[in-house]
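Input structure tokens:
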């Protein structure tokens, strides 16, 4: 069992007051660090609704392209996702998909056309408790967070300090 699975399984049920706000079924659940931030192991977090890359990648890639990221290839762990084709056409663009057994199961990498620019995203498992998932996304989007992808759900399951809210964490970005 990975750290992500453990954190998800051990997450306490959230009281109604702490529940994540309702969201649109089409809303992309993505938090990115500021583009000029250097350092850290991840560049943001993504919470897909399923493990089907052919369904989940088009909205993610469209958002990344809209934000100025030129994604040409997506690298993922073969065992963490449903089987996927070798390429995908999104908005008229062909994107190569590469599944690797050694890729961190808790991350997905979006690689630019030249191969030099890469965005590493923490993948919050689809079945994660919404409160834990939102905290993990917030932590993944913080410029100063030093966690690796597989470690991010652990602090997300910890109780908030008195007087702190998830919104306060987001505002600290």
């Amino acid at each position: 069992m990975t750290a992500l699975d453990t954190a998800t399984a051990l997450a306490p049920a959230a009281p109604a007051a702490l529940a994540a706000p309702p969201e649109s079924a089409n809303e992309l659940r993505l938090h990115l660090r500021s583009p000029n931030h250097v350092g850290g192991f991840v560049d943001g977090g993504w919470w897909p609704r399923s493990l089907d890359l052919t369904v989940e990648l088009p909205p993610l890639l469209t958002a990344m392209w809209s934000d100025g990221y030129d994604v040409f290839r997506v690298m993922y762990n073969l065992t963490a996702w449903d089987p996927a084709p070798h390429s995908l056409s999104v908005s008229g663009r062909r994107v190569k998909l590469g599944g690797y057994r050694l890729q961190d199961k808790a991350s997905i990498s979006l690689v630019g056309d030249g191969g030099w620019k890469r965005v590493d995203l923490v993948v919050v498992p689809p079945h994660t408790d919404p409160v834990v998932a939102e905290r993990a996304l917030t932590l993944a989007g913080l410029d100063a967070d030093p966690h690796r992808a597989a470690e991010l759900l652990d602090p997300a399951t910890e109780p908030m300090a008195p007087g702190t809210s998830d919104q306060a964490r987001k505002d600290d970005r």
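The longest strand covers residues 93-100. The chain has five helices and seven strands.
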